[in-house]
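Title: Comparing notes on inverse folding

I've been comparing how different people in this forum approach sequence design from structure. To keep things fair, I'm posting one structure and asking everyone to reply with a full sequence. Here's the target:
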């Protein structure tokens, strides 16, 4: 029987190649590339033994290991898989589709966001001059309820004086993170996941690592005011914007929040 190779087979190969590429990139970013290579070697051995050599006993043993191994990998790499699915859902094509069906008035959005942004900017600049440390997380598409639950509920309108009072050095909530959600201060004193990225400069402290951690695990914007230097930084999508001026901070927040 001749081997039929059509357009469907080409699409099949391309989809498998694309899937393997995304898995490879995911493993590389999470420093698990050796694990990925080991998995690929095991899969190739399994296919060679069961499909080419047709060894029934060894093939059946490897079949059982594969079925159990898939569950084990899901448990071990659950955070990486979550991050991969999140990145897939936030691709530009999906975002454009959502924006196409979004019917709200853009000028109204800009006006409301200015009311949200300016108190944050003014508070950060004031705390920067006084060398008051702060960590402010602005929620976007990905809900941060699990982070909010670790802190104290505030549920107040965004206000410069309130932000400064919360991060005042003698305040019981100044060490944690403030979460802003739906244009309100949702909670303060929240605990964030700390990034273990080795590329973060050593002079950056725990606040910066926490900001990087939440930006890697969600689409949130994390603003940091350094207690040691007074410098303002932002972490977005796993990247830092360091040593920001008031104008730069306002520009980035306006761009990312609208």
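Reply #1:
Here's my take.
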């Amino acid at each position: 029987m001749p081997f039929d190779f059509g357009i469907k087979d080409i699409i099949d190969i391309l989809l498998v190649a694309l899937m393997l590429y995304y898995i490879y990139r995911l493993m590389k970013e999470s420093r698990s590339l050796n694990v990925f290579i080991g998995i690929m070697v095991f899969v190739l051995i399994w296919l060679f033994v069961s499909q080419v050599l047709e060894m029934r006993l060894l093939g059946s043993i490897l079949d059982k290991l594969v079925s159990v191994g898939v569950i084990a990998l899901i448990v071990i790499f659950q955070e990486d898989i979550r991050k991969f699915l999140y990145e897939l859902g936030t691709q530009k094509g999906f975002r454009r589709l959502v924006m196409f069906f979004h019917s709200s008035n853009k000028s109204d959005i800009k006006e409301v966001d200015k009311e949200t942004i300016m108190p944050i900017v003014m508070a950060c600049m004031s705390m920067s001059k006084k060398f008051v440390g702060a960590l402010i997380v602005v929620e976007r598409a990905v809900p941060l309820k699990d982070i909010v639950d670790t802190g104290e509920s505030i549920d107040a309108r965004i206000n410069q004086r309130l932000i400064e009072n919360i991060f005042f050095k003698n305040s019981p909530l100044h060490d944690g993170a403030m979460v802003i959600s739906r244009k309100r201060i949702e909670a303060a004193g929240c605990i964030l996941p700390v990034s273990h990225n080795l590329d973060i400069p050593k002079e950056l402290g725990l606040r910066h690592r926490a900001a990087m951690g939440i930006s890697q695990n969600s689409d949130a914007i994390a603003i940091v005011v350094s207690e040691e230097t007074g410098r303002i930084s932002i972490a977005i999508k796993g990247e830092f914007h360091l040593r920001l001026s008031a104008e730069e901070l306002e520009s980035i927040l306006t761009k990312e929040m609208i």
